[in-house]
Design a protein that fits this description.
heterotetramer, A mainly alpha (660), B mainly alpha (123), C alpha+beta (440), D mainly alpha (204), B: 123 residues, mainly alpha, 2 domains, flat, D: mainly alpha, Four Helix Bundle (Hemerythrin (Met), subunit A), 0% strand
């Protein structure tokens, strides 16, 4: 229950290395601390850097999964009336492509950067709640497993090892196939089967993971800053993390309730979205987009944060208009809650509502434009160095502009009536998602990889990654603007010949393969770096922020002594600024560095979501004994949380060799 | 670097215990007021006043109770501004969003449940 | 560093070439569902707004993009750069505020026409040109409808469209017929999931949402006044009327393609529909024949035919009669389909088949038999009927015609065992197809 | 028991003197505003567009009972405030007395809710009765679950206070965080009482 009273500090022993004696928890169990086995170390870690790396690896894996799904989709569409895959399979693929990319690739990639960088950037030893952080990671893994479980069942079914039974068995859709937006009433019990249940439970679990992680980051950024790290001295990336985390905190409850209502409709026969019982399917759309529009900014703001770090570092200039960039980020976040209905211009909102949301949407273009102006302003008068991170960041600005402009085109509601649900929209948000978020993330990978693994990527392969991904992206998505305006609707598994769409579609498909090759090269380059990169040094880029003051890779305690921050762009001022702006360090109080103990409990608790989610979903689909599986999951979660509460936080002290 | 930023206070919140006794009286008074308001609300709905008037009074009273519990029982007025911001943001976004949503729904847009092939009367 | 710069310029030229190639690959913007080739005032208003946004954002793109490229080139690091560090300025509030002001101004340029456009597209007009009393020439119109404009109830099903004309009491499926130059009010309803009505060359989309009373208005071609005003043609009333009629006839009367634009399940991609825009006379004729419906084969009356069918079915011979026998009998088509005139074909779960053979497509627009010159290719039509009845699940996976009888069309010999279905033979399907071809 | 999910960084310096757990709880409550906002607005929307769904002549709600349970919940909030105050002063006995009161009142509230639900089901209002049944039960049910979690949490704290491991400083924060949660459950009920019960009644 309580946390601190029983801390046993028997640890004034001097540990030069990381080998520690495992300590016993309040329960009398051994703590899974360092030195036992690498696997256990990673599974039970509470170190934000390791958690960040795991987020990154899993997210990259799902990026590839989502990419393969996209390639199959594009291959199917290469020719009119193609029958490579069935309509149902296609629908499953585009549903899972969207869900995977948003919830299992981009969000966790962002989380990977948050985790690894934020404590380093604010001069903290770790996040505020290290075990909640570990819980968030494993809950994310649990959600990913539940949401993708349908593929596994489908495989078993194809192999003849599994047959669905129960009320929805005839539908045979074990993989979600109602679109990532899940518009009611197609998610209703009479239209879709078990796939929808997996989707509901998976998203619910991912929501829990995101919420706990986001609250953790808000507390970390507000409370754990080093001395002197005032809010207006925070690196922009950390600012964007704060805003994104707040967006998650305030946007996710809407989808949580919407999913709960949907689940009640499916399981208990309630009428939230059932027309026959007086329900209004349109309510789902509102609740979904109340979450969904902030979600768009949740996805894109971290990318803006990354670019706002890379551009100054490679222009040798501070970010132009720091305060305005931060402020416009906050305005985007806040206004993001006021424009949800622009996804619903064609649902017959009425004149006044349409007009209001149209104008608010135009308004949100202003702070977004401000950011672009400031990035250009950052380059102006600087000294632009074309290294890989910079090339991707420059590409980001250009591509993001293109995505942004087609966004402005959507804001005019009558024009949007032609664009909505056509390929024009697909072009728009893929310019933002790939041209924007993906390029920024790759830029971030090349920028921070030397810090993460201590090795420098080598050669010009990164340049080829840039060429193939940028060219692929444009060849794939630029023609889609035209496809949309020529009347091709989204989410269609095939199309008739003679509508003038054939050439465009073929070009798009070729582009998709070029893009895929670019991503393949990226993976190769990362592996090359990890296998045989040269030591990178602490500050290979002559960079500006605090994370570059530590070793590469950083020690488990991040900073041997807590830094005291004299200015924004602390490291730059330290290197190039006047004498009174050097980073100083707090004196050693002789107690050593307090480190949190590792724990199995967050992982046990969060992996309990797997049996709970799967059990509930399959119980609904009529599979026998699944109720017990669900109860088992619930018990596992309760047990994990209870033991977590009772084991006590533990902790030990480290005394690093004095090197600085 | 100005040493003014450097704050050597311990981590745990320094609670001013001398204020606890005054708080006690505030709490007792507030509890009485809250109980009284609940009584008033119950009586009010039965009184033959104008409905709009009763509605306004009810909403104001519940707002008062809401704010009072937050401010004193949850000691938000004694605490740091940051906490008010954290909670207030959520409250404002929720209130704004859902008020707007409430206005977006109207009976004008409701159509009866369609049954195939039936042309509704009056067409 | 030099090598990198080389690579960068190589990359730019490569990208430009590919982009240019993409541009050139399809210049034809006048395709069947193109939103550029507008044929009605709504689509036109929407296109105008779109082009406005293109010009405004294009302008911003040119300016900002130009400055951006200039900055990247001008301020690049030179080899052996030993210049002092750039000045560490944190920004310029005046520049920032100026840029914010400029972007707000540019947005106002879009905002004002947008508001106008919203009001225009959301308000169904009721002008004299469009009132039924003015142009409709049939004598079957209720008096109260004379001052209304034409109303069509569009009802979405998984995966086909029903078009009801409540003012005339008629009903058709998947192919709707509207008069040229007249505003038409559409009531959009759905019986199952969300669909979206999109006729790109005439109007942008509005969703059909269960439980929600959505509506829109469409119009193919301008009305007389607007047309005169727009084209600035001078002349006497009669000449102008002739010229206007000519404009409608040559430019507007046509066959338009539309498609469901909201994901609605398995066969969403195959939920298309067609719209024929016709003249006033032609519309009246169509309404009349739709109302009359069909007689039994060989122009028999239905009473006579059914009497024979009930007593001596074997005496009704010939492919068409056999087809009709299957239509009302073993094929159980009448359980879901109705045919105007036929007293036993009253089903409502599927499209109304009155005059189905005069439609130019089948299966919600997926199977076409429209010939190049706009007439019906009867051979192709027969093939399409055959294919659709024989294997509906191939044409449209998951559809009701296939599902309702336990995966096929035919007789269920044992209701307990869905596998024991006696499916229609090829010959039977041929006969039904031949019968259906007579419904025109 | 989220208060336990922490690890302490005694070395870390906090720029603002707010306890991590307290900030976390306030953020959670801000998030919960959206949570209950969604539920309550769903209910109100369906009341607005389906006004005739429930028979207006049947007096479903017993305002006396609900006022009583509102009163009970407010008083439990009062006792919770006293318990937190006592813990800050280190008066563990007073803390126990007050917390037992909170738990008792909370159980009465839950009892009232169970009784109310049973009555409604007898009157024919079920979970699948139109949209009213769906929204009403999900909303009040979710609130009830919040109350139940709060009671469970406080029971744990009550027994924990006998282990002798509580101290005035750190445990006071734990108790305060639990208290914040409890008060929030109370203010949600204040809103539900007004917009769902009272306004429904004057609307008749």
């Amino acid at each position: 229950m309580s946390t601190t009273v029983t801390e046993t500090h028997e640890t004034s022993t001097h540990y030069g290395s990381h080998v520690l004696k495992p300590e016993r928890s309040n329960l009398g169990l051994m703590r899974p601390d360092h030195g036992k086995s690498v696997l256990i170390d990673w599974l039970t870690t509470v170190d934000h850097k390791k958690i960040g790396i795991m987020y990154g690896v899993i997210a990259l894996f799902f990026l590839l999964v989502g990419g393969v799904e996209a390639l199959v989709i594009r291959t199917q569409l290469a020719f009119p009336e193609n029958d490579l895959i069935s309509a149902q399979r296609y629908n499953q693929l585009f549903t899972m492509h969207g869900t995977t990319m948003i919830f299992l690739a981009i969000m966790p990639l962002n989380a990977a950067f948050f985790n690894f960088l934020v404590p380093l950037q604010i001069g903290a030893r770790d996040v505020a709640f290290p075990r909640i952080n570990s819980f968030s990671l494993w809950a994310f893994v649990a959600g990913a497993l539940v949401i993708n479980f349908g593929w596994f069942l489908q495989l078993l079914e194809v192999m003849g090892l599994f047959t669905a039974s129960g009320p929805t068995a005839g539908m045979n859709d074990l993989v979600p196939s109602m679109g990532w937006f899940g518009y009611a009433p197609i998610t209703g019990i009479e239209f879709t089967g078990a796939g929808t249940d997996f989707w509901i439970m998976g998203l619910q679990i991912l929501g829990i993971a995101s919420l706990s992680a986001a609250m953790n980051f808000v507390v970390t950024i507000i409370n754990m800053r080093a001395v002197g790290m005032k809010m207006m001295r925070l690196p922009v990336f950390t600012w964007m993390t704060l805003i994104v985390s707040l967006l998650i905190v305030f946007a996710f409850p809407a989808i949580t309730i919407a999913l709960a209502e949907l689940m009640f409709d499916r399981v208990f026969g309630t009428n939230f979205f059932v027309t026959a019982g007086g329900g209004q399917p349109i309510l789902w759309q509102h609740l979904f987009w109340i979450f969904g529009h902030p979600e768009v900014y949740i996805l894109v703001l971290p990318a803006m944060g990354i670019v706002s770090e890379v551009l100054p570092a490679f222009s040798k200039k501070p970010l132009f208009g720091y305060a305005i960039v931060v402020f416009s980020g906050a305005v985007i976040g806040f206004l993001g809650f006021a424009v949800w209905s622009h996804h619903m211009f064609t649902t017959g909102l009425g004149k006044v509502a349409t007009a209001a949301f149209s104008l608010l949407t135009m308004a949100i273009a202003v702070p977004t434009g401000v950011k672009i102006f400031n990035w250009v302003g950052t380059l102006w008068g600087g000294r632009v160095r074309f290294s890989a991170p910079m090339i991707f960041a420059l590409g980001f600005v250009w591509m993001f502009m293109m995505g942004g402009f087609s966004g402005i085109m959507h804001s005019s509601a009558p024009a949007d009536a032609q664009q909505q649900d056509s390929y024009f929209v697909i072009a728009h948000f893929h310019y933002v998602a790939i041209g924007g978020i993906f390029l920024a993330v790759v830029s971030g990978i090349y920028f921070w990889l030397p810090k993460i693994c201590g090795k420098m990527w080598k050669g010009n392969l990164s340049l080829w990654v840039a060429i193939f991904s940028t060219v692929g992206l444009n060849v794939t998505f630029f023609p889609m603007h035209f496809l949309g305006l020529l009347g091709m609707p989204r989410r269609t598994h095939t199309y008739l010949e003679g509508f003038g769409w054939e050439t465009y579609n073929l070009v798009c498909t070729i582009g998709a393969y070029i893009l895929a090759f670019g991503i393949f090269l990226l993976v190769v380059d990362i592996i090359r770096c990890l296998r045989s990169g040269e030591p990178a040094g602490d500050d290979p880029w002559d960079a500006r922020t605090l994370e570059w003051t530590t070793t590469s890779p950083p020690q488990v305690y991040n900073f041997a002594r807590n830094p005291i921050i004299p200015a924004r762009d602390a490291l730059w001022e330290h290197k190039h600024g006047p004498e009174n702006r050097k980073i100083t360090y707090e004196p050693d109080d002789g107690h050593g560095i307090h480190m949190p103990s590792q724990s199995w409990m967050p992982m046990i608790a969060s992996l309990g979501f797997v049996p709970l989610g799967l059990g509930l979903s399959m119980m609904q689909a009529g599979v026998a004994y699944m109720g017990y599986v669900a109860i088992f999951g619930l018990l596992m979660i309760s047990l994990g949380v209870a033991l977590w509460a009772l084991e006590g936080p533990g902790g030990y002290h480290l005394h690093p060799e004095e090197e600085n | 670097m100005s040493q003014a930023d450097y704050n050597p206070l311990p981590v745990s919140p320094a609670v001013d215990h001398s204020g606890e006794n005054e708080k006690y009286h505030v709490f007792v008074n507030l509890a009485l007021v809250l109980a009284a308001i609940t009584g008033v609300e119950l009586v009010l709905v039965y009184l033959p006043f104008n409905k709009a008037f009763i509605f306004t009074v009810l909403v104001s009273l519940s707002m008062f109770k809401f704010v009072a519990v937050i401010a004193w029982f949850m000691h938000l007025i004694y605490d740091k501004l940051m906490l008010t911001l954290a909670f207030g943001t959520g409250l404002v976004i929720a209130a704004g969003t859902y008020t707007a949503l409430l206005f977006l729904f109207s009976t004008d847009y409701v159509a009866p449940h369609e049954i195939p092939g039936i042309i509704p009367p009056g067409m | 560093m030099k090598k990198l710069s080389n690579g960068y310029s190589r990359f730019i030229s490569f990208a430009t070439a590919l982009l240019a190639l993409t541009f050139l690959s399809g210049c034809d913007l006048n395709t069947r569902m193109s939103t550029f080739d507008t044929k009605g005032p709504i689509a036109e208003a929407q296109l105008d707004l779109f082009m406005l946004t293109v010009w405004v954002t294009g302008f911003i793109f040119l300016v900002v993009g130009g400055v951006y490229v200039f900055a990247v080139i001008k301020f690049r690091e030179r080899p052996n750069d030993d210049r002092p560090l750039p000045s560490q300025g944190h920004g310029n509030p005046l520049v920032e505020i100026g840029l914010i002001g400029a972007s707000v101004l540019l947005l106002v340029i879009i905002a004002v026409p947008t508001l106008k456009g919203i009001w225009y597209t959301h308000t169904t007009p009721n002008n004299t040109y469009s009132q039924l009393g003015t142009w409709y020439e049939g004598d079957d119109l209720a008096a109260e409808a004379e001052e209304e404009i034409l109303v069509i109830r569009v009802i979405g099903y998984q995966w086909w469209w029903e078009f009801e004309y409540p003012q005339f009491g008629i009903n058709t499926g998947n192919e709707m017929i509207i008069p040229a130059g007249k505003a038409v009010h559409l009531e959009l309803r759905s019986v199952d999931v969300i669909h979206s009505f999109w006729l790109p060359r005439i109007a942008g989309k509005v969703d059909l949402i269960p439980g929600r009373a959505n509506s829109m208005w469409i119009q193919a071609g301008d009305d007389f006044d607007t047309w005169v005003e727009k084209n600035g043609i001078e002349g006497g009333e009669v000449e102008l009327q002739t010229a206007y009629a000519n404009y409608l006839k040559t430019e507007i009367h046509n066959y338009y393609y539309g498609q469901c634009a909201e994901y609605c399940g398995d066969s969403h991609a195959r939920m298309l529909f067609r719209t024929t825009v016709v003249g006033d006379d032609e519309f009246a004729d169509w309404v009349a024949s739709q109302k009359t419906g069909h007689t039994a084969p060989e122009d028999k009356s239905w009473d006579e035919w059914y009497k024979t069918y009930d007593s001596h079915p074997e005496s009704l011979s010939g492919d068409v009669n056999e087809g009709l026998k299957l239509f009302v009998g073993r094929g159980k088509c009448i359980a879901c389909h109705s045919v105007q005139g036929n007293p036993r074909a009253l089903g409502v779960a599927g499209p109304d088949l009155t005059m189905v053979a005069s439609r130019q497509s089948l299966a919600a627009g997926w199977l076409n038999h429209r010939a190049e010159d706009g007439s019906i290719d009867t051979e192709k039509q027969y093939e399409n009927f055959f294919k659709w009845i024989k294997e509906p699940d191939v044409v449209k996976p998951g559809n009701l015609m296939w599902k309702s009888n336990g995966n096929g069309i035919g007789e269920l010999t044992d209701p307990e065992d869905p596998d024991k279905i006696k499916l229609l033979t090829d010959d039977e399907v041929r006969k039904i197809s031949l019968y259906l071809q007579t419904l025109k | 028991m989220s208060d336990t999910a922490t690890a302490h960084h005694e070395d870390g310096h906090k720029s603002l003197i707010i306890d991590n757990k307290k900030l976390l709880m306030w953020l959670f409550l801000g998030s919960d505003c959206m949570f209950f906002g969604t539920l309550i607005s769903t209910h109100l929307i369906y009341r607005k567009i389906n006004p005739t769904e429930i028979d207006p002549t049947v007096n479903l709600f017993s305002l006396e009972l609900t006022s009583f349970s509102t009163f009970i919940l407010l008083m439990s909030s009062f006792l919770m405030a006293l318990a937190v105050s006592a813990m800050h002063k280190g008066q563990i006995k007073s803390f126990r007395r007050n917390v037992i009161g909170v738990i008792f009142f909370g159980l009465i509230f839950l009892g009232c809710q169970v009784y109310e639900f049973t009555e409604f089901v007898h009157l024919g209002l079920k979970l699948d009765t139109g949209t009213f049944g769906s929204t009403f039960y999900l909303m009040t049910g979710t609130h009830g679950v919040h109350v139940a979690i709060g009671i469970f949490w406080l029971i744990c704290m009550y027994f924990y206070s006998y282990t002798g491991k509580m101290d005035a400083h750190e445990s006071a924060v734990d108790v305060e965080v639990a208290g914040l949660y409890w008060h929030f459950v109370d203010i949600v009920w204040i809103i539900i009482f007004t917009v769902v019960y009272l306004i429904e009644f004057i609307g008749k």
